Amino acid sequence: MVQTISTNIAAGLQDIAYDGERNTFWVKGCGSYFYQLPLTGGSPISSFAPPDRYGYGIYWDPEEPDMLWFTDHVHYKIYKRNVVTGQNIGSIFVGSPVTGIAKAGDHFWCGVGQEPGHYGWIIEVDMSGHQTNSFMLPAVGYCNDVGGCTLDDEGYLWVEGGKQTAIYKINIGYDPPSLIEADIIDSSDYNGDGKSDVAIFRETTGLWAVRGITRFYFGTEDDIPVSGDYDNDGTTDAGIFRGSMGLWAIRGVTRAYFGADGDIPVPGDYDADGKCDAGIYRESNGCWAIRNFTRTYFGGGDDQVVPGYYLHSRQKYIGIYRPSTGLWAIKGLTRAYFGGVENDVPVPGVAGGVGGWEPAIFRPSTGLWAVKSGFRAYFGAEGDKPAPGDYDGYGGNEPAIFREVYGLWAARQVTRCYFGRSGDVPVTGRVCNPLTPTPVPTPSVTPTPSVTPTPTPSPSPTPSLTPTPTPGVTPTPTPSATPTPTPSATPTPMSSATPTLTPTPSVVPTLPPEAP
Fold first, then answer.
1. How far apart are CA 149 and CA 159, in angstroms?
2. What is the DSSP letter of 245?
3. 140 close to 167: Cβ distance less than 8 angstroms
4. Among 224, 293, 303, 507, which is 20 to 30 Å from 129 by CA?
């Protein structure tokens, strides 16, 4: 379905950007003004004129609330404007007549218009305006009249090439931050004994295997595992999110439709009633939607989602981690800076002292685990997937890794086994209803490399966004059949030891899946 929105801007439009904080559009008119428009169209809410009356491309920055970027194609600049105060914060001179603009990490990709008879260009510049890359558009039609740019969720740049040309999809080599599997698992106590269980999901066949407990088939390829305690019985339920349909299927419990393709599932007990709730984060506009509970806007852009049970709360809180600055922002609770080194992985549930969850990182390059309150340990290596959990039932979450190339699981000073193989997704985490952590003395056996995770905080505006309701995101397609479980033998465990690299073949046999 195509929805038509009419405006009262007689001059027409040149470019458009969506403001996820206010749920409005910012547009560039063919004249000299920029306008803020309601989603329903009609008259502008506000407007402003660019410096020297020249402007063209426009970009709304989800990483910095209230900030709008726009281009001046006459003076070869990119301006940054605070839409609340109406002040231009600064400008970047790029040395070319930039038209369209899109931001990828800490670089801009810009369309560069030319006089008739010349070819249009796409250039990449850093935050100082230095050109780092460029390429020419195909020489067809009015390719000199290159227009707007935008990035999609997969990191591709889309460019309007000008009259009588095309809209181009370009691979610029940008890899948007990916979701860490541990972020989407709410709990992993599959038998209710108060301990986290070693478990994998093999998406190629839909196999779920829980070490020493069970195995069954549930789900299909491209489903995302979303295990949690959805019925408050003290045990973790296997579940999948099928984005193509917005389907949440919880094995033996329920099915529901909530969300859409491209949404990131963020299950958890957000209302503290003891049950895991279905929830989604929509990266394109920073929208968090928790089924039957709340909807709000918080974060966006390159932020990574880190919802969690902070301050030892029974309630899960919305939160984001901003890798570029090391910013942790937990909605309604706190802001802090911790980490921020390239490739740091946020692991807020690790350690879990009496204060509950807090900012924490795993640094694969050195094997460093660090919690803001002071805990430090070196455990694991590059390529390991962090899988912290309460494997001994003492109430805290130990540093643990899954080394998929060997199927190795290792929990620091607790256990070590081989379970799974390369490509398996670890579906483990906290226990369903954790006890107040009891400090357990353990001898220190960690080396002391020089790297420390204490970056200097850099200024960053508050990412807290004004809650603004939008139309629902729950399509209602015809439900697909619930997968049928098939029990069979569990993989054989290995003895406990430290996580050294010992090539050992996978011990999870591959069985043909039953039809989901």
1. 5
2. T
3. no
4. 303
**499, 367 in Cβ contact below 8 A?**
no
Q: Token digits for 197?
A: 């269980």
The residue with tokens 């029974």 is: 314
Q: Taking a C-beta distance cutoff of 8 angstroms, is the pair 257, 473 a contact? A: no
CA distance 161 to 112: 10
Alpha-carbon distances, residue 169 vs 114, 136, 156, 161, 166 (angstroms): 20, 14, 6, 10, 10
- Residue 508's contacts (CB-CB under 8 Å, 6 or more residues apart) are 200, 202, 207, 209, 407, 419, 420, 421, 424, 491
Does the reported pTM lie above 0.90?
Answer: no
Render pLDDT for 445-490 as a digit per residue (tens, 0 to 9): 333 333 333 343 433 333 333 333 333 333 334 333 333 343 333 3
**Encoded tokens for 152:** 């999609």
Chain-centroid distance of CA 10 in Å reads 39
Nearest-angstrom CA–CA distance, 131 and 96: 10
Q: How far, in Å, are 32, 236, 380, 507 from residue 490 at the CA level?
A: 68, 18, 25, 9
Decide: 77 and 84 in contact? Cβ < 8 Å.
Answer: no
Q: How would you list the strands of the sheet with 24-29, edge to edge?
A: 13-19, 24-29, 34-38, 46-48
Q: Which two tokens stand for residue 340?
A: 């921020």
Q: 176-227: per-residue pLDDT in tens?
A: 655 555 568 999 999 999 999 999 999 888 999 999 999 999 998 889 999 9
Euclidean distance between CA atoms 54 and 465, whole angstroms: 30
Diameter of the chain measured on Cα atoms: 75
Beta strands in 396-456 (DSSP E): 400-403, 408-411, 415-418, 425-426
Whether the Cβ atoms of residue 347 and residue 338 lie closer than 8 Å to each other: no
| Residue found under tokens 């749920």 | 23
Q: Residue 307 — φ and ψ, nearest 5°?
A: -65, 150
Tell me the one-letter amino acid at 491.
P
Task: Count the Cβ atoms, other than its own, within 10 Å of residue 331.
Answer: 18
485 torsion bin: left (phi>0), alpha (psi -120 to 50), beta (else): beta
